[in-house]
Amino acid sequence: MSTTSQKHRDFVGEPMGDKSVMALSGIGGILGKKLEEQGFDKAYVVLGQFLLLKKDTEMFTDWLKDVSGANSRQAGSCAQCLKEWCDAFL
Amino acid sequence: MPMFVEDPANFSKSRLKSDLVAHNVKLPPAKSKKEVYVELHMQHIDQKKTVEFSSDEEVEEDEEDDMEGEDGENPGDAEMPDPSALTDDDLKAALLKHGVKAGPIVASTRFLYEKKLRKLLQSDGHHGQLNGAKNGMMYSDSEEEEEEENGEDNDAESSAEEENKETVEESDQADEESSQVQAGSQSVAANVYSSSSSSSSSSSQTFSITEMLKEMEGRRSLSTSANSERAFNGGNVQHHWSQSNRLDMPSVVNRTMKNQSLYYTPKAFPQEREMQEPVKDDFKHLFPAEITPSGIYATRRRPIKGAAGRPIQYMYPDTPVSPMTLQRRDVERRLVPVHIQILVFVTVTCLLYLIYVCVEDNTFSPIVSLLDNLNPGSNSGEALLHKTEAQDTPALSEWE
Q1: Distance CA B367, CA B358 (A)
Q2: Which of A25, A88, A90, B146: disulfide with A81, CB 3.0–4.6 Å?
Q3: How far is it, in rounded angstroms, from Cα B163 to Cα B157?
């Protein structure tokens, strides 16, 4: 089933703790930097935004695209990653 | 006369901030007083509001009654022309009106919810134009509604025909047999159902969604029996469904719909909307990514695989990951080379010893004597050892 990347599995497999945004699936160096500029320097801050949007992946992808300039695939991957993390640990 | 204007001074500071951000106004330094925000707010945003209202009054005379009606009523009732001009609560109420339960509207989420409301308004506008305008529905006679109903009938029938040839016959029969009202509701149900699944029979005659679902599930075997079931009306079906265990939610919806159709001639348009929304809910978890009239795309919710019983491990059978196994793997990586390290160490020491021996005495004899030492025969070995030692010491003395 899983078309998930190793990064995805690494993130979803354990509590995110103090991981940087770059640890999120779909977020690479450039996007991570843009997020950090906006103030989202840790993965849990992005998680906060995801939760504020009531875990709606669609709205979150819209927001992420707007804030960091991610494309649909990257934003979708990140949203999916966070959603699974929430399902497992929240 | 604008009825919307609220005094910005009554707003909270965070509300003023979010408003300014929404209107792309540069924020004053973080620790400014509220008055600064209020001033900016009044400058930029209130100007906008007055412009909007004056243009409304000037341009649209025909709909003056409607517009005044909208302004006079509470903000929750009519469509909001500009989502950015709404307060947080109004925005939330407007979204709720369209069936979207919004989360907290904060600075970071406000823009998204405004965008969503705009999308909903646009799709409403399209929908309204197609079906004769929501405002028209609210303020017009029943004659218009009947016309709309007929129009919907035709649309529904034509779409049903396009998608499924089998339903054509049955839908025709349904129209002949039942009243106009029932035909409207059934064809609407048919339209909704056929748009969502490709299954054959079922849809037309019944206005019970649960029946359609059941038929879909037992499609292959029960098709004939399902046809016979469809002939029954009212109480029979209801009784049947009260007994059934599956899908409680649709059955409740089904009953409410039935009651409406049986007890009074419903106004087709609101009924259609009501029916569509519960239908949407039913099919949401069954069919992925359905194209819905309101434009809200909902992906099928993935089953929860949380720590409570179905741990993440089973999702990824190829790599069972847990922190402990990761640590163990790291340790093991270090353990394995240890054997190799020991072997290497032993060989290197032997080599070094041999080299040392060679260096001590350039002749080949010490190596030969060493090799002889390995042979069984301790006496000879000892004698040879003494000999080598004796040889070594003069060698050492020579070196010095």
Answers
A1: 7
A2: A25
A3: 10
Distance of CA B78 to the CA centre of its chain: 29
Q: How many CB atoms lie within 10 A of CB B381?
A: 15
Which of A4, A10, A62 is nearest residue B112 as measured by Cβ atoms? A62
Contact with chain B for residue A5, Cβ under 8 A: no
Collapsing DSSP to helix, strand or coil, A26 comes out as coil
Residue B115: alpha-carbon gap to chain centroid: 17
Higher-pLDDT residue of B295, B100? B100
Neighbours of B193 (CB within 10 A): 24
Alpha-carbon gap, residue B150 to B188, rounded angstroms: 11
Taking contacts as CB-CB distances below 8 angstroms, the residues of chain B near A1 are: 315
What's the gap between Cα B104 and its chain centre? 18
Helix B107-131 and helix A57-68, axial crossing angle in degrees, nearest 10: 120
Report how far residue B147's alpha carbon sits from residue A32's, in angstroms, rounded to the nearest whole number: 56
Q: CB–CB of B250/B210 below 8 Å?
A: yes
| Verdict on whether the full-model pTM lies above 0.80 | no
Q: What does each of the 90 residues of chain A score in pLDDT, given as a tens digit? A: 457 899 999 999 999 999 999 999 999 999 999 999 999 999 999 999 999 999 999 999 999 999 999 999 999 999 999 999 999 999
For the stretch B161-174, pLDDT in tens is 444 444 444 445 54
d(CA B194, CA B196) in angstroms, rounded, equals: 5
**Beta bridge pairs of residue A37:** none
Q: Residue range B317-343: average pLDDT?
A: 76
| Residue of A6, A8, A14 to mutate, interface with B, max B Cβ within 10 Å | A14
Tokens (6 digits) for B313: 């491990």
Give residue B189's pLDDT.
45
CB burial string B280-296: b at 16+ within 10 A, e below: bebbbeeeeebebbbeb
Q: Are A8 and B316 in contact (CB under 8 A)?
A: no
A14 close to B (CB below 8 A):
yes
Q: Are B148 and B286 in contact (CB under 8 A)?
A: no
DSSP label at residue B27: P
What is the total residue count of chain B?
A: 400
